Amino acid sequence: MPVLVASDLDRTLIYSSAALALTMPDARAPRLLCVEVHESRPLSYMTETAAQLLTDLGDTAVFVPTTTRTRKQYQRINLPGPQPAYAICANGGHLLVDGVTDQDWHAQVLARLAEECAPLAEIREHLMTSADPLWVRKHRVAEDLFAYLVVERELLPEEWVKELAAWAENRGWTVSLQGRKIYAVPKPLTKSAAVREVAQRTGAHLTLAAGDSLLDADLLLAADRGWRPGHGELADSDWSAPEISALPERGVLAGERIVREFLRASRPRA
Length: 270
Hints:
Layout: E1 3-7, E2 15-16, E3 32-38, E4 41-47, H1 48-57, E5 62-65, H2 71-74, E6 86-89, E7 94-97, E8 100-101, H3 103-116, H4 120-130, E9 136-142, E10 146-151, H5 158-169, E11 173-178, E12 181-186, H6 191-202, E13 206-210, H7 217-222, E14 225-228, H8 233-236, E15 244-246, H9 252-266
Parallel strand pairs: 1-5, 1-13, 13-14, 14-15
Antiparallel strand pairs: 2-4, 3-4, 6-7, 7-8, 9-10, 10-12, 11-12
Helix pairs in contact: 1-9
């Protein structure tokens, strides 16, 4: 019976140059491997050690990338090792099997969203009318499932985010601020639901997980064991739960530590 490892990607396993947190002297900085190129430019990295550990993990567990990214954004990433048999995109809205969307799963997700929360159009209209162009750089919709804004963080009023979260809560949506992006996501659209589906299909007896944002909290709570890095929304709010380890490492070294913990926990004990 396999071990299932479900991990968030951005700022958990892979890191942009701005998120690397290379605070050590230059001579002691880890060697980095580029794992994402966008518009002919390197975009995301992991340490070479983490890359080797992730390759080794494929021999001991079912590794499932679990991301809020759209399918197109996810497919830009070139992780070391073989292509995962399962991947979760759009915060659980799409379950990829050998790189192809499982249409039955997607239809189930759409049915649940229609039944349990306000429509995307209402959320988009509110974002368009309430967000100030002074600090909004882009309005985006992901996979016709949720919306997000790209903002100038130094100009963003903290009270506006709190007011948006309260407004969205009453309509069955949740709000997450991650770096320069503000996500508005339907509450039923969860990574944990998709991970449970993969666990059932694979017969996994143990689920391990990692994530850094509030959108990862349900994923961590659904796992048997989990880890969060020393940065991100969960760390900033001092979020904790039983069986969840709060790591001290920040930046790309946190990603390396997380893969090491996955590998240690997934190997059979003598």
